[in-house]
Amino acid sequence: MTTRAGLRPYNFSAGPAAMPEAVLQRAASEMLDWHGSGMSVMEMSHRGKEFGQIATQAEADLRTLLAVPENFHILFMQGGGLGENAIAPLNLSRGTVADFVITGSWSIKSQKEAQRYCETRIVASNVSGKHTSLPEAASWKLSDDASYVHLCSNETINGIEFHELPDLAALGSKAPLVIDFSSHVASRPVDWRRVGLAFGGAQKNLGPAGLTIVVVRDDLLGHALEICPSAFNYKTVADNQSMYNTPPTWGIYMAGLTFQWLLQQTEGEATGIAAMELRNIAKAKLLYDFVDTSALYENRLAADCRSRMNVPFFLRDESRNEAFLAGAREAGLLQLKGHKSVGGMRASIYNAMPLEGVQALVTYMREFERSHA
To answer: How far apart are CA 310 and CA 116, in angstroms?
Structure first.
């Protein structure tokens, strides 16, 4: 495999995904002895003062990073997005009705899982268009009695993103909006005025697998169904500062280092999330612009809802897929194969992916096209 003058290859995995090298290096330096404690973070009691410092700082930094209002709780949980597909209805549905906007593979999974705990209504869907565009918010058939409205704000597999969250109040709904923001959390600001609950697995944009971030508004606590396990009851978790059961301590530590790294990022006068959004716009534009002008590659999604994080593309001659992937690996460009349910290729260009990585991918794609013309 060719590497960048001895540096690490570029990893385009959809998750678990690449992490900032500076974060990995710092974790390596602290692996055997965290700040003179004589212990690795993986060896600490979650109730000890050392880990208490780590968790408190991580929560504070995430609140600053995402500008989370004070009337929202930040919870560190486990189970990932799939787990939250059950945990959210167990806490919010009250066993009644929940509305679902279907935009791809993950929202389909969310709706099917929620059926176990409440009545679900599909109020909008892009299935007939094969998940290539978003249903207009004005066309959604929202329920008057919904306990919440669920959407996946970035579909990792299908490469579709809501660039603006819907204003449910303007659409006539009094229900809180629940978003699965697993694959684009911290890549752009969140309009918390429009959100009641946001959840996401950390393994795509914030840290290692095992940690799930939940941000939930105060008034949505305390309504869990009787069958909800106590460790998954948002109020119980909030009342115990995410320490009701042993949390994913290593994941919290690594995510905390990533939060600090993100807060330090600058792009011109922009800092933190604002800086990352500018970078992510530039990375996505570079890749999409090349694909759109290519004779060999294509993207099949509507331009107004293309994900900045997960960029699917296809070779028009798919008999060349294996050659493309083999050449990419030789060039130090890893994990570009698309999801098995979609096919083709997918480049996940999360916060940790530098612009240089996307430039290297475009250079390789251009050379491959030239040699296979």
So the answer is: 30
